[in-house]
Every structure is written in C-alpha cells, then in structure tokens.
Amino acid sequence: MRQLLPVLFALAFTAAPALADDAKVPTISVDGKGEVVAAPDTAAINAGVTTEGKTAREALDANTKAMADLMATLKSAGIDAKDIQTSGFSVNPQYVYPNNSNGDATPPHISGYTVQNAVAVKIRKLDDLGTILDDVVTAGSNTINGVSFSVDDPDKLLDEARKAAFKDAKSKARIYADAAGVGLGPVQSISESAGNEGGPQPVMFKAMAAADRAPVPVAPGQLTFDVGVSVVWTIEGPSN
Questions:
Q1: Is 17 exposed, middle or buried (0-12, 13-18, 19+ CB in 10 A)?
Q2: Does the pTM of the predicted model rise above 0.85?
Q3: Architecture of domain 24-39+154-236
Q4: For 165-196, what is each residue's pLDDT tens digit?
Q5: Which of 35, 115, 174, 211 could bond to 63 as cystine, CB 3.0-4.6 Å?
C-alpha cells in the first residue's frame, strides 16, 4: 500500500488543472462590416499593337515602328517611365489548313506571321484619360484590353472602413447584451476578414472619326472599400 500512495497523489495533482480549464469565461461574438465609397484617382489600361507580315521579320519591323510611336505618344502625354511596363509580346505563325475532305493528307502551311506587343499603362491624372485613349489609337495602337480604375493610396479609406466595422460590431453586441440582460466586458479578440475593393466601374469607349476627333468619353464611377471584423467580448453580470 505504501507504494500506491505516491501514484494516486500524482494522478490527483495532474487532474486539477484540466478541471479548472473547463470553467470557460462566457463570451459574445459579433461580426461587423464597414464600408467606404470613394471616387477613383488612378486608371490602368493595356494598350498594344498587332501587326502581320509574310515573314516574321516583316511583321516585327512593322510592330517595332508602331510601338515606338505608341511609346513616344505616352511620353508626350506625361506618363512616367515607371508607369509603363511591357505586359505581353508574341510572334506567331499564321497557318492555312487545306481542305482534306477528299482524303488528301496535305499538311497545313504557314502563310504569314503575327506579332503582338502590349504595355500596361498607369494613368495618374484621370482628366487626361479620354485624350490619352484617343491619342494611343491615333498613334497606331489597335489593341486596348480593358480600362480599370483604382485609388492609388487606399490605406486611409480602409482604416475608415475598419473603424466603421468595429462600431457596427459593438452596436450589435450591445443590442444582444441588453436583450439578454447582461453587460459587455473587455474585448477578448478582434479578427479582420478580407475586405474587397470594387463596385461599379463603368467605362465608355467610342471610336471617333479622324475628322471629328475628341477625347474618348469615360465614366470612372466610384469604388467601394469594405472591411469585415469579428469581435469577441467577455460577458459580465446583469447589466445596470
């Protein structure tokens, strides 16, 4: 019996903390959402040139000349070199596929080549966007893939959304606490869910005749910045 006593004592000692952990503090967890709407101040376009030629060299020479004119136009528009980045370049053969319905196994042959070169351009003056779009087309750009709008420095807007999200969560928590007849204690945890930047981004693009050139009509719209937050409060005794 003397040898069993230390073992029983050890088991009783190690079990005590586990029982204490089961006594959890009551909490209330509420989600909140904050949203801020702002006008964009920056636009991004992807403009390029597609050329064709009987040989790859011919197509590339034509493309190089057109791209040089496009780059010069962007520079003349005041676009900084750091805001112009090559986004795609390709040289591809053009194939002609013969009609082999009669059982002839004639292979396809190359009839020419296509060269594509494009640049991603960041425009920091939205008032110039319509004119720049018109100018790049005039300079020889025959490929413009989309126009997107953004806010160059969204941090302050996101911080405002965070404050609004917490305020929303706290307001909801107080409603629940009052309904339950308890009080809100200290905040135990705060976790932020991924926010989104989005909203309507309408863009109008209208081809203009050479004799009637005017800035391309554009409509930047507005952007929405939203943040979600989950907050956990300690529940205290009956509210006063």
A1: exposed
A2: no
A3: 2-Layer Sandwich (3.30)
A4: 999 999 999 999 999 999 999 999 999 986 66
A5: 115
